[in-house]
Amino acid sequence: MFHDAWFSLPLYYLLLVNQLISSFNLDTRQPNIKIGPKGSYFGYSVAEHLIDFDSPVLLVGAPRAQTDQPGTNRSGYLFQCKTSNFIDDCTPLSVDYDRSNPLPPREKEFKNDQWLGVVVKSAGPGGQVMTCAHRYVEQGKDYHWSRGICYSLTHYLDYHRAWEPCDNRPVKKAHEEYGFCQAGTSIDISSSNDLLIGAPGPYTWRGTVFINAIRFALRDDKTWYMGRVQEKESPVDKYSYLGMSVTSGKFFGDKMSFVGGAPRSNGTGQVVFFSKEKGSFLSVDLILSGEQFASSFGYTLLTMDLQNDNKPDLIVGAPFYYDGSRSEGAVYLYYNTGKGIDSKYDVRLLGKQDSRFGWALADLGDINKDGFNDLVVGAPYDEGGGAIYIYLGSPNGIKTNAIQVIKGEDIKGFGQTGRPIRTFGYSLSGSFDMDKNGYPDLLVGAYESDAAILLRARPILNIATRVDNITQIDANREDCREDPSSKLPCFVIEPCFQLLNSPKGKSVLQLRYVIEAESFLEKKPIVPRVKFNSSAESDNPHIVNTTIPILSDRVGRWNCHRELVYIKDKSDIHRSIQFQLTYSLEQEEPKQPPGMWSNLPDIDRYPILNQEEARKVFHASFLKECRNTEQCQSNLNVIAKLQHPMDTPYTQDRILYLGSTDVNLELTVRNTMEPAYDANLYIYHPFITYIGKDQTEGEQIDCKPFNISLLVCSLGNPFKRGEVKLNLKFDPKDITESQNDVDIRVFVNTSSVDLNQAKNDISTKLLVIRRADLEIKGSSDPAGVWFGGEVVGEVAMKTSDDIGSRIEHSYTIISNGPYHPKELTVEIDWPYSLSSDKEEGKWLLYLMNTIVVQGKGQCVPTLGTVNPLKIWDSESVSIKSDSFVKSRPKRQTIVPAKRIMEDGKSQNVVVLDCQKKTARCYKFLCYLQDLRPGVPSVIVFIGRLWNSTFVEDYASGVNQVHIYSRARLAIGPSIRQNRTNDDSTFAITKAYPDLPLLPPPRVPLWIIIMSILLGILLLILLIIVLWRCGFFIRRKPGYLAAPVEDKDFDDYN
């Protein structure tokens, strides 16, 4: 049997609290509406303040208000408003200048859009007030630093002093130091009068928290304490925005803790606990992390005691949380155990879709006078113009069902302002009694309507209720003792109530009670089985509606009224007859519209009953066949077995391979003795969703989800001797990335006496293993590019075509299952310059355009990595090609020569790769979400080859230059991969010199000399060979005597 109170089922009647959400004691019919100048963001911040206990004031920030200070534009105001019924009686306070003698700002001050009034905080009665202008600028001829400034006011709202925690701090590196500090984005005043100022800007928006003594008296420690901001010393990385919210409290014993929210830290958001140490720095005591990427965990913080145990609890807002269904925005509650705050939250509250639930948080005070402070949560973008949610505190912490939800459209009379209501709940302030009726009131800001609304609390009349004289119904009786003339059996119920306190100024109250039989149930019968004697002749005989006048002298006494009930149908005696009892006060609606009289209407004339006791459900049961006429004695036995393989033969833990199978639970329930009435089987299954059941043995039973993590199976009324066996299936899709096991609890409950009760509450564990196959592939488009032409400096670069050839490096991530991660981080190295001993090397691949992610996710570039020179992109459309592309910068006009690519030819190749330390790389983190089977996620980097670098360094003697970018999957230990060799990859761009544009190569001198000597040697050898062959020995031609017969003598005759 489950032992929590809401599972305890008494035999005769069951009393259940049914909370009324539509109305509680914050009154929407008589609001105190205040409006400011249009477009001033009046209501961006609000604070209730008591100058003294008789002088309540509403403080409203309007950070974009146009002031009357010369030389400024929209510098902002802090308004004070009276608690009158006029809507436009708010006046600005003299904060950053004397409004009686307005002078221009000092020469070094720049107040345009400084956002004075972005936050406002009151320390309570007799305490000081703080407000800030986080965009306040200190300027000069060659600088413009957004330092931020805060101001403290006395409890009389007179100027006290200015606070500039970032003044005189180094700004040489601008945003990389304190140049854009933005101190005053958030503020808090601790119970020990410490001033906390959040500054999310220092050191590239890493952020920090500053601490000082707000009173700044002689004996106060006037040291500016701060969290460390240097690399490797700060608890957060760049762009974490630590200081976006702050709070304080003694969470760990008597030591004061200072808490800062960093909504972008670690991707999910984090909350950092600081404490003072020697010197001027704060030490880190604890870091809480959000559970979902981009949820902005830590955007808002609140300290309050929800359990009235004098131990402060922490409330954290994550307004961008999204659970994949219809919930958006979350609020996390961390209870103080006495030993401090644990890293695991105790309660998580969820809002509606697109509501930004958790954007604002406030301690409402004890609004229902039960001794426990109550929580209010703002959801400014909820439907109906925004909404606020009221949650009650208790000894066990927060009650997770909102006792009251107020929407902007519920504010009566707001239409008379002539403005639509929007962003109702953007800012909140509570816990002060502004109308002196003994109940705390709530101030709500709606900055898009330039309005603030004070909602006052109506007095609560506490009521105690009970139901007497409920006897078991004897189904065998055919008569009615109370009415002998009736032919129907009957029984008597006697609802009783007791008013525990009396209203002011009222001698007679009209109290109405309504009893409704069965028709209020979700599965209501076609015709209710009973009717009331007092309403037997009406159209609804199953409902009795009675109004009772209550005199003031009856307060504190029980008032009971007998109701006779007839049973019309006895065919179903195993199911109890359910009744709903509701009490309410009858009173006139207030008719006075706002704005007609200066004094607020007397809200004490309109008390309300404590809704937690004003509505109850009870039932009447039939007699059952048992040896003991009071209760049956059953002997239930439950066996639970997970249909999953064991982790190892030596353990009993079972394994769930996430993504490949559902959770299968086999249950067997036996009863070996008397019938068990109202028998139910409960399965507590956090993080897994019920799908259905398959019953294999016994009478068919009905299983229904009670809530998202509890399944209730009705075993029957009664569950007789025998056995039921069924298989339950659950979907593990909601298991988070960080969860490594699932605990399932099974227990049986019955209104009969269970002799085996101690053994019927069992738990079993399922180990979660994520078996995945993730791969990443890289590609370059085009695969090769050309470089050449003249060297051009950075100053001459006007368009992206002036830089060089366009390239794309694409990385495709594929999830082959069976598990598909909900979140995956990809680390990418982009080679932006050559490796050099100097601080900056030559440009290599110039990242021109913003990184593109095809799929669900985003890449987070470091400031100054994407187009740092602000060169105009002349080509905005991606050009895709599957083949080698030869492209040339526009300035090249020489026709390129034909390229010769032959196998075996020697090629001079230069490799530029960060892995080989031949290049420098920017490191990028890309966060992918909801990877799906067969749907690739693609990350594309678009850049330009810096042509001048390659012409200078590689135009001569180099055939190819290979430039690598690399990517790897950052896979956590909770995922087991079948293969890991494809978790990293690269994309390569091959750059070729444009040969016709290259100068002719110079032949080395030694080659020339050797060639001449070789030629001479060859000539000598040739001469020797020819000489040896007799080429140079020839006979000279001489005179030879001719024969006499051949001579011609005729010429001599």
Automatic annotation (TrEMBL):
GO CC field: external side of plasma membrane; integrin complex
Gene3D superfamilies: Bicelle-embedded integrin alpha(iib) transmembrane segment, Integrin alpha, N-terminal, Integrin domains. Chain A, domain 2, ntegrin, alpha v. Chain A, domain 3, ntegrin, alpha v. Chain A, domain 4
Coiled-coil positions: none
The Integrin alpha second immunoglobulin-like domain, residue ranges: 626-765
Pfam family, one: Integrin_A_Ig_2
Membrane topology: Single-pass type I membrane protein
Subcellular localization: Membrane
Residue ranges occupied by any Integrin alpha third immunoglobulin-like domain in the UniProt entry: 774-984
Family, as annotated: Belongs to the integrin alpha chain family.
Protein name, entry field: Uncharacterized protein
Gene name tied to this protein: 107362352
